[in-house]
Specification:
By secondary structure, the protein is mainly beta. The two termini are about 65 Å apart.
């Protein structure tokens, strides 16, 4: 008895909208072997239908006669939207400007002090006590962003992975993604090999702006790169109006705490 595949009358149930789908139903006659039935169903049903792709195919026995190798099967084929993976060489981008926190001991400007005539002038020092400057935690601009790139297997060698390790925790020695020298910090990368033989690698960065013309009390103007660290030394000084000793900034230090690196060797452009 020949094997036949016929579409059933209650086939083609469909759904439109954000997740469109179509279900085709078939009756398959002429074999009691499930593998034969499944292979024929796969080879005889369309891989696409109405702009949708075949996502699953299942078979269920309606009856099977093992003595005559005859049987009937219900074949259900479901179609839905294609979920294409990005090709090798493609990339995606995400960002967050939520900012970071920093402990500061110096304000931009003292707006007011009370009583105006007798309150000591600390030249912008914050939270001054008898022997300390406590400061405050503030939100500062930190531009965090990540990029996912799909790189050929020939690129992602052990040496390249070592380069990613070496550059982690370094700032940009040249302009990168619109950020000036010293404004971008490489936070590291994570990756995995995809089925098609290429690599999916996510690179993470943070940006902090360079500043110029900064004043700390009467000290300045001061220039500082985004990821350099600034700290202030305070000493006792006499406030002639308040007739008392106060803590005031007497020196400002800009410290380099991150090495620079050549981001061009990441291989993802500038």
């Amino acid at each position: 008895m020949p094997i036949t595949l016929r579409e059933k009358i209650d086939s083609r149930a469909s759904q439109a909208g954000e997740s469109p789908s179509v279900t085709l139903l078939y009756g398959l006659d002429g074999t009691s072997d499930d593998l034969t039935a499944k292979t024929l169903a796969i080879n005889s049903t369309p891989t696409t239908y109405d702009g949708l792709v075949r996502q699953s195919l299942s078979i269920e026995p309606e009856w099977v006669d093992t003595n005559t190798t005859d049987g009937r099967w219900l074949v259900t084929v479901r179609y839905g939207s294609a979920t294409e993976e990005p090709p090798t060489g493609d990339s995606t981008f995400a960002f967050d400007t939520g900012g970071g926190t920093q402990h500061i001991t110096q304000s931009i400007q003292t707006i007011a002090k009370y009583p105006p005539a007798t309150a000591p002038d600390f030249k912008g020092a914050i939270g001054v006590t008898h022997d300390n400057v406590e400061g405050v935690d503030i939100t500062i601009p930190v531009y965090q962003f990540s990029e996912t790139h799909y790189l050929d297997d020939a690129i992602v060698t052990p040496a390249y992975r070592g380069t990613l390790f070496y550059l982690t925790g370094k700032t940009n020695a040249g302009g990168f993604r619109g950020l000036a020298i010293g404004e971008c910090l490489f936070l590291g990368a994570s990756g995995s090999k995809r089925g098609q033989g290429d690599w999916e690698i996510t690179f993470r960065f943070a940006g902090s702006p360079n500043v110029t013309g900064l004043m700390v009390g009467t000290i300045g103007p001061i220039s500082k790169k985004g990821w350099e660290y600034m700290w202030v030394r305070y000493e006792d000084d006499e406030d002639e109006n308040a007739k008392r000793l106060v803590k005031r900034p007497t020196a400002v230090y800009i410290e380099k705490v991150y090495e620079e690196g050549n981001f061009a060797v990441l291989g993802i452009g500038s």
